[in-house]
Amino acid sequence: ILNVEQSPQSLHVQEGDSTNFTCSFPSSNFYALHWYRWETAKSPEALFVMTLNGDEKKKGRISATLNTKEGYSYLYIKGSQPEDSATYLCAFASGGSYIPTFGRGTSLIVHP
Amino acid sequence: ETGVTQSPTHLIKTRGQQVTLRCSSQSGHNTVSWYQQALGQGPQFIFQYYREEENGRGNFPPRFSGLQFPNYSSELNVNALELDDSALYLCASSLEIATDTQYFGPGTRLTVL
Questions:
Q1: What's the CA gap between B41 and B87, in Å, rounded?
Q2: Which residues lie closer than 8 Å to B71 by C-beta, 6 or more apart?
């Protein structure tokens, strides 16, 4: 069973704050790392698929980095807005199964 | 816009019954995956179908079964429902395999009484 951990479990920030969360995964047999944003009452929405060590991806104010050697990825949100309030999920796929294993997510609430 | 739909939205069943959940993938997506999300957990992988063949299975008993059809629709069937099967069931479609972006449906909330 692959262990994918996300921290913190929840986060409350003020509008305008920048924030970041962590996804930890096994450092061996890496294949891909996915980030999703899941707003309440909506479908999970793909943010990034990362496949190479050192990858950095950016989408608007959201960016992500990947370190496959040490088994972690950071998701950064610059200047948080209330509409960024959501649960952020990461999913790790190993080279053995190619099947994504999800973490429990980080719940972000941005207060106006 | 993901284009992935699921039906029904909500469902209530009693223990021992059988249930079929449905998913309509995006056109052209050859892979569909099904996940179970229990309260407080991340989505747990149930199984994946690629071009109508099961292509991987998570740690779920055989009473969880599925089908994928040529028209990009799929089904998740659960027999002999147990209380612990109460969860949100998500389907996700993708072009091919794990490196491809998965497009999720809104889920079906199943309650087993």
A1: 10
A2: none
How many whole angstroms separate alpha carbon A85 and alpha carbon A89?
13
Q: Which residues of B touch A36 (CB under 8 A)?
A: 104
The Cα A69–Cα A21 span in angstroms is 18
Q: Which residues pair with B96 in a beta bridge?
A: none
**Separation in Å, CA of B107 to nearest CA in chain A:** 7
Contact yes or no for A4 and B42 at CB 8 A: yes
**Any idea how long chain A is?**
112
Q: Each residue of A48-80: pLDDT tens digit?
A: 999 999 999 999 999 999 999 999 999 999 999
- Is residue A92 within 8 A of residue A3, CB to CB? The reply is no
Q: What is the pLDDT of residues B5-57, one digit of tens each?
A: 999 999 999 999 999 999 999 888 899 999 999 988 999 999 999 999 998 89
- Of all residues in chain B, what percent are helix, strand and coil, respectively (each to 5)? 5, 50, 45
Please answer whether residues A106 and A37 qualify as being in contact, where contact means their C-beta atoms are separated by less than 8 angstroms. no
Cα atoms in the 13 Å half-sphere on the side-chain side of A21? 28
Give me the phi and psi of A89, to 5 degrees please.
-110, 140
